């Protein structure tokens, strides 16, 4: 009897599915999936395949197995590129996260309740402004700000008595630092916006109770705000780290990787191999390594976002 | 997720204050914080201010008084010169067309796929979404050379339409995820009722789902518009011809010619900044919400 019930139940469900036309929903995925296959799937596959060939981009590719990867492993420039990417993670991810938490809490706890909406909007918009300007425009703007003789940076430095300020982008010791300062300037708007949004989610009763118990602002910030914002902090660190590893335009526009290889990053290194030295197979291998690294980040991100299981 | 997404798309986020009417009493510490935060804001605006001030300065004025001084008088020739040199109206038009059509097609593709996932609950939906999310973080470097070859083979190289196709698809990965989540949180009673009444998927799509998700679609379109406007690598590789270049690309590749001409450099930066700032002022709420949309749930 129980088997019969199960069968009929299953039958019923099947019938219902057919009646609902659940199957007919598959049709709606066709444009998306076809477009994906052509514009992303095929090129990705092609890129991985090319990484096993020696190819200049137009002649006949020659299969060389893992040689590109072995060469990469022994290539100093490849490791240098990733070392710079790590420095840019500090500039785009870690420092903006710390400063974003601090500025965000100051704005949320002081500017907004004591000085009102107008000032809050002004402060948030000022910090957010660099986020909306194209990265190419920011790069040429900062190129100009950092220029050795007539630039704003060095004019300010000279006016406070530093007579021999560095040629920021032209010196292999300061170039990464100079780009990093720019990246911090860009990223604060993103982290502040996310953290302030998160702070709006925290139950005000927590802060009020702590205040009554005599906790200072700094104590409340450390104990309540930081722990309550844990999900936002993780997401911000992951997304900004991904952005930092992908960095390309500032390097290509501001320094062209130089001086020497002092500002090479993985994305620029692969671009350089594709279009300047035309070692397309080698460039593809770099891009493939980059892709695998970023996929690990994005899987982490996706799992994290779905940790409670999105109910779809 | 639905809650925070409502929060992200809805209107609550913009008001972290506890109301303008009853501000707290300001003590010494609050004034110190106020002064520091305002100072930081001004420091943040300073580079943009510098671009503005120096774009309207004569080269001689710049030479004598440096970048920090205010202009002696307003001089618009650097801006005009750069405007005509790079044919800026043409670049604006190219950027506008690419951004507009990516917003349109990108959202359309996202909507259709999300409809199957969020409303149709097709099997394999988690797999599709997971795949799309991973693909969305793929570096463009690992697509760019094959796309370069492919666009030549299909004779779309050097056309702005190739950008429209590529970015519509790349962004639809993100759009599908966002819209699927919104649709997935739909009250099932409405959908069940519609199905009982014999509504086909197409009718459900047009008459029920579309009107409700329209605001989210509009927000997505706005983000796509800005994202494409700011793209660099793929336009750099695929648009060889100056006449087809976008604003971002054109500024990126011409800037090198003006390094010995600081006021023109400032003018170029200013011209690049202005369209984005105008767009931001119009769509401020949507855009700053957009930052949090993808990130936090």
Summarize the structure.
The complex is a heterodimer of chains A (312) and B (297). With 312 residues, chain A is mostly helical. Chain A has helices spanning 2-20, 30-50, 67-74, 76-132, 135-145, 152-159, 175-201, 204-212, 217-228, 230-245, 249-255, 266-275, 280-305; strands spanning 53-54, 62-63.
What does this protein structure show overall?
The complex is a heterodimer of chains A (312) and B (297). Chain A is built from 13 helices and 2 strands. With 312 residues, chain A is an all-alpha fold. Chain A folds into 2 domains: 2-50, no CATH class; 76-305, MetI-like (MetI-like fold), CATH 1.10.3720. Chain A has a two-stranded antiparallel ribbon with strand order 1-2. In chain A, strand 1 (53-54) and strand 2 (62-63) form a beta hairpin. With 297 residues, chain B is mainly α. Chain B has helices at residues 2-9, 28-55, 59-65, 77-85, 88-119, 125-136, 141-153, 160-184, 188-196, 201-230, 233-238, 247-254, 262-282, 284-293. Chain B is built from 14 helices and no strands. Chain B folds into 2 domains: 2-80, no CATH class; 86-250 and 268-293, MetI-like (MetI-like fold, Orthogonal Bundle). In chain B, helix 4 (77-85) packs across helix 13 (262-282), helix 5 (88-119) packs parallel to helix 8 and helix 6 packs across helix 8 (160-184). The chains are: A mainly alpha (312), B mainly alpha (297). At the A-B interface, helix 2, helix 4, helix 5, helix 6 and helix 7 of A face helix 1, helix 2, helix 5, helix 6 and helix 7 of B.
Oligomer: heterodimer
* Assigned CATH superfamily of the largest domain in chain A: MetI-like
- The level 1 CATH classification of the largest domain in chain A is Mainly Alpha
- The CATH superfamily name of the largest domain in chain B is MetI-like
Instruction: Give the CA-CA distance, first to last residue of chain B.
Output: 5 Å
Count the strands of chain A? Answer: 2
Spatial order of the strands in the main sheet of chain A? Answer: 1-2
CATH architecture of the largest domain in chain B: Orthogonal Bundle
Class of the largest domain in chain B in CATH? Answer: Mainly Alpha
**Estimated radius of gyration of chain B:** 24 Å
Averaging pLDDT over every residue of chain B, what do you get?
85
Tell me, rounded to a whole number, the average pLDDT of chain A. 88
**pLDDT under 50 segments of chain A (min length 5)?**
1-5
Number of beta-strand segments of chain B = 0
CATH fold description of the largest domain in chain A: MetI-like fold
**In percent, how much strand structure appears in the residues of chain A?**
under 5%
Category from helices, strands and their pairing of chain A: mainly alpha
Helix content of chain B: over 70%
Which series of helices and strands of chain A comes N to C? HHEEHHHHHHHHHHH
Which architecture name of the largest domain in chain A does CATH use? Answer: Orthogonal Bundle
